[in-house]
What does this fold into?
Amino acid sequence: MHWNARTQYACLAAVELARHYQGGAPVQIKNIADRLAIPSRFLVQILLQLKATGWVTSTRGASGGYHLAHQPSKISVWDIIQAVDSNPDTPFDAAGSSERHVLHRLLNQAQAAFQEVLKKTTLSELTERVDQQRDPMYFI
It folds into this structure.
């Protein structure tokens, strides 16, 4: 799994768009970039990739910006990762010794489990987690 800056920024931007989904108004790149400390030029490229794959749409004009093309509960983190990372699997050379073969199988199992978690986790769930972290409940 390549968890590079592009992947991280794409997930962060998608969660930000999910937070604003109910309002219906597009979110401007500048607002996303400022709030999440993502370089604007890099964010533009990422959002264009997400747009090309159909996960976000854009509106032109002074009050334009980006918004999710689908409900946050219908978009998984894995969907976003696949949209911006052409090869989300980490390559590993299994040729050679039996130790390499065993390690290769283990890494394949770990990769499958990792992907399963990302496929099950939606943007809606992530926004709920963010909201819970912002507004912790205190019990006495």
Remarks:
- The chain has one domain: 5-134.
- Residues 98-120 form the longest helix (23 residues).
- The chain has a mean pLDDT of 89.
- DSSP finds six helices and two strands in the chain.
